[in-house]
Amino acid sequence: MSPAAPVADVVIAGAGPAGRALARACVALDLRTLLVDPRPHHAWTHTYGSWHHELPDDLPADVVAARGRGVVVARHTHELEDEYVVLDTRALQEHLTDPAVALRRGRAVSAVAAGPGRHPAVVLDDGTAASGRVVVDATGARQALARRGATGGGPRAEQTAFGVVVDREVAARVSGDRLLFMDWRPRHGRPGWPTFLYAVPLDDRRVLLEETSLARRPGLPMPELRTRLRARLRAAGLTDAEIPDDPGAVEKVRFPVDSPRHRSPAGVVAVGAADPLVHPASGFSLATSLRLAPQLAAVIADALHGGAEPAAAARAARRVVRSPAAVTVHALRRRGLETLLAMPPEDVPGFFDRFFTLPPAHRRAYLDARDDVTASVAAMTSLFGRLTPRLRLHLIRGTLLGAHSVRTEQ
Hints:
Blueprint: E1 8-13, H1 17-27, E2 33-37, E3 49-51, E4 64-73, E5 77-87, H2 89-96, E6 102-105, E7 108-112, E8 121-124, E9 129-137, E10 158-167, H3 168-175, E11 180-183, E12 196-201, E13 206-216, H4 222-235, E14 250-256, E15 268-270, H5 286-305, H6 310-321, H7 324-341, H8 348-355, H9 360-368, H10 373-386, H11 389-401
Parallel strand pairs: 1-2, 1-9, 2-6, 4-11, 9-15
Antiparallel strand pairs: 3-5, 4-5, 7-8, 8-9, 10-13, 10-14, 11-12, 12-13
C-alpha cells in the first residue's frame, strides 16, 4: 500500500484519554490533527482516579467529581497524607475533546512505515489508510500499529476488578464512609490469591465498591471477583436487594500491566497504554498521559515546523515518552511486579502494610516518579529495609527469578 499525501500533520489512532489529550495538545500548537477511532463519539464509562499531585495543573475544577484522603487497611490501618481524586468521566471526556480535531470512523489494524518519499499511515479495517507526517498509536494494550513479531509467550499479567455502584448510605455500612484505597481484609471468605476492596465516591451520593485483583498472571476471572464482592458486601450486612447486578450499575475492569514494549514502525510513536505507560505495580496511566501530552505535542510541532522527516519527528517524540531514565525506572517497576506475582498469597497484605509505612516522598517516588532513577532506587531501598526477613527473601527471589514458577490460584 502506498498512502497518498498526508491528510494531517498528526494522525492518532485511538480516541481514549491518551489519544484525545494528545490531539487536544497538538491542535493548540496549530498542527492539523486527525483522530481515528471505531466509535469516536462513544461515551467513556470507566472510573478514573489519581493522586492529586500527579494531575496537570490546568485540569478544570468540574473534572474532579470527588476527593479525599485515602485509607489502606491491611494488617493495620494507614491514613494516607496524599489526596486521592476521582474524576468525572463525562467532564474529562468533554475537556479533552477539541472541535478543531478532525474525526474519522474506523478501526486501526496496522501501520505503514515511513520511507523514502512515503509518509507513515494508519491502515483501517475497511482497507483504506489515513496518512500523516507523524502517526501515533493510542490504541491501548492492543498496540494496533506495532510491528508484529515474537514478544514472549504465556499469558499477560492483568489487573482485574468487578464493581457495583450504590448509594452513599449503603456504601457507608461497608466502608465506614471512608475512601478505601485498599482494604485487604479477606471478608469475602474465599481462599487463594488475595484481592482488596476499592471504595471511592463518584459524587455526593454514589460510591463505587470494587473487588480488585491488583495483578495476577493470568488475571482473576470476573465470576470469581463478582462472587468475592457479593460475599464481602453480605458479610458487611448488605442484602441481595441492595447489591445491584444490572449492567448500568456494574463496572468491569481488565487490562494488562506487563504489555511488551511497542515495536514502532518508522514514523510511528506510541502513547498511553500502547507505549506502555501503565505503571506495572499500580495499573495507573491516566495522569502520566495527561501530563506528557503537551510535552509530546511541543516536540512534534518543533520537529515538523523545523522540516524534520517523519521518521526523525517520531524518534524525537519517542525520546519524550521513553527517555533512558524512564526506561530504567519502568524496568525497575517491572521487577517489582514480578516480585509481587512471585509472593505467596498469604504474604501480600503484609507486604502492603510495609509499603504504606514508607515516608510520603518515597511512596510518591515509586508511584509517580517515572523518570527519576535516583528517587525510585531510594524508595525501593527504603522498602527493602522495612521488610521482614521472610519478605526480603521473597523480594530477592522474585527480582532474580521472576514469577514464571508461580502456581495459578483463585
